Amino acid sequence: MANETGWHVVELLYNCLPERFSSGNHTDVCVLQSVKEDVANIIAPLMVRPITRWPFFAFLGGAMFCLLASSTCHLLSCHSERLSYIMLRLDYAGIAALISTSFYPPVYYSFMCDPFFFNLYMGFITILGVATILFSLLPVFQNPEFRSIRASLFFGMGVSGIAPILHKLILFWHHPEALHTTGYEVLMGLLYGIGALVYATRIPERWMPGKFDIAGHSHQLFHILVVAGAYTHYRAGLVYLKWRDLNGC
């Protein structure tokens, strides 16, 4: 009896789905006639075809790995010189992982219906991210003379995301979700870019040596900006998921 009732409810909901999700129009038996179309659009993808979440989870995994590696580095780097070298290289690898996985949600959900550009952008950022992670693990990478190179390398990874974002805007300029996500991505890029600039130039302690040894120095500001950028990108990812859940290709 319970199963029959459950199937009856599903059937009635199916009859109320928007045209994209239903093969026929059965409004005569619809029990949700007064419900607005946008409510049905929320129900429909959950019943029919929710979009895959792995690119979004990959980004969350990269962000958590970055923050965990950084926390571990700050906690254990004072143990010994050898362990400090290992932790610093792990910290740089975490930054590279965060930047590369940040590309996955916008690239996947923007070009999921275009295999050529999907593979092009996803392949490029994956190869670049793996190469940067491997380079980050080299002992020479943490030498002080490579400080500007480190910042430039991470900054260059972020700048490479301009191409798919502009491409997305050209393809979906008439979709408000494309503009919405681009706003988040521009803000994320600014936060990451400012963080890299502060890290490389050692602002503000270079202006007033000794005044920011405990709080307010460049490395702390860098971490705050990175967390803010990651959260901004998280908000963009939620917009992508809702957009593709409701509209598909």
Automatic annotation (TrEMBL):
The keyword Iron appears for this protein: no
Entry annotated with the keyword Kinase: no
InterPro entries, alphabetized: AdipoR/HlyIII-related
GO-annotated biological processes: response to hormone; response to sucrose
Keywords from the UniProt entry: Membrane, Metal-binding, Transmembrane, Transmembrane helix, Zinc
An MF annotation (GO) of this entry: signaling receptor activity
Bilayer-spanning residue ranges: 56-78, 90-108, 120-141, 153-175, 181-200
Binding site for Zn(2+): 74, 219, 223
GO CC aspect terms: membrane
Membrane topology designation: Multi-pass membrane protein
Subcellular locations according to the entry: Membrane
Signal peptide: none
Family of this protein: Belongs to the ADIPOR family.
The protein, known as: Heptahelical transmembrane protein 4-like isoform X8
Species classification: Eukaryota, Viridiplantae, Streptophyta, Embryophyta, Tracheophyta
Gene: LOC111292088
